[in-house]
Amino acid sequence: MQAKQATATRRTEVIGIASGKGGVGKTTLSTNLAVALSLMGKSVMLLDGDLGLANAQIALGCQTQYNLSHVIAGEKTLKEIIVTSRQGVKLVPGASGVHQMAGLSAAVTAGIVQAFSELDDEIDYLIVDTAAGIAPSVLAFMEACQRRFIVVKDEPSSIADAYGIIKVMTRDLELDEIYLIPNMVESQAAGAHLYRRVNDVCNRFLGKSLHYLTSIEADELVLTALKKYQSVLEFAPGSAGARDYRRLADALANLPEIGHASGGLQFFMERLVQQTPGG
Fold it and tell me: In this structure, what CATH number is given to the domain that contains residue 87?
């Protein structure tokens, strides 16, 4: 009885990671952040929520026989598709190249997350790597998370699309706890400057302020590591990229608890179902 109570009260921090457009390094950031947290001794689960072009397993060097499409079809349970990477990250594989998975409605996405109620793992962090853009599944995932990371590059199209998804999340969904993560920037100073620029626009036109933790500097070793199916923290632990991901993980771990979060994977599931029409 006591063991059940301990599991029920354990708090899981749920982080949604999105971007306004593809090609900004969102999945690379998600996987490296997951590894950095795992190396800190945290229990981490990564949900590959890109339900059409899932590739988190590639970045973690995992071979996956089953994925979320098998859960949706009723062929496998969520527990049966989870694999643990060599870095200790529990991966829930997405469905790469499965056409019907790419356009799931918010209601079906809610069904995916509802499957989390069967899990009894003690997880410190659940990282949800969503698809790029503002598809219903992306917004459903982001609304169910406790904190939301928006990845942005210092390019006009990336900035415009990041502002677009922030606008939808703040105006239409009235979400808070939105963090801007500048990626592949020239320096920490350049990243902080990019954050201030975007934040100024959000303050002026949306009446909302974004949070900031740190930036990820451009580092060719991050891409080299990816080509070798490794995180940069494994491949080049002394690199600028590894340093920045450790800094991001440390900053995340030191954030205060969110007062209104009732906690855990159950909270993630319940929040997603509640905001889904007909759920």
Answer: 3.40.50.300
Q: What is the pTM of this model?
A: 0.88
Q: What are phi and psi of 182, to 5 degrees?
A: -65, 130
Does 127 fall in a domain?
yes
Span of 93-107, 143-157, 175-189 with lowest mean pLDDT:
93-107
Cα gap 245→247, rounded to integer Å: 5
Domain holding 202, by residue range, is 12-274
Alpha-carbon gap, residue 114 to 275, rounded angstroms? 13
Contact in structure between 100 and 68 (CB atoms under 8 Å): no
Dihedral of the alpha carbons of 36, 37, 41, 42, in degrees to the nearest 10: -160
Per-residue model confidence as pLDDT tens digits over 59-115:
888 888 898 888 877 888 888 999 999 999 999 988 766 666 656 677 766 666 667
Mean pLDDT of the chain: 85
Residue 177 lies in a domain: yes
Q: How many domains does the chain have?
A: 1
Q: State which amino acid sits at residue 185.
A: V
Contacts of 155 (CB under 8 A, 6+ apart): none
Write out the two tokens for 166: 């922030």
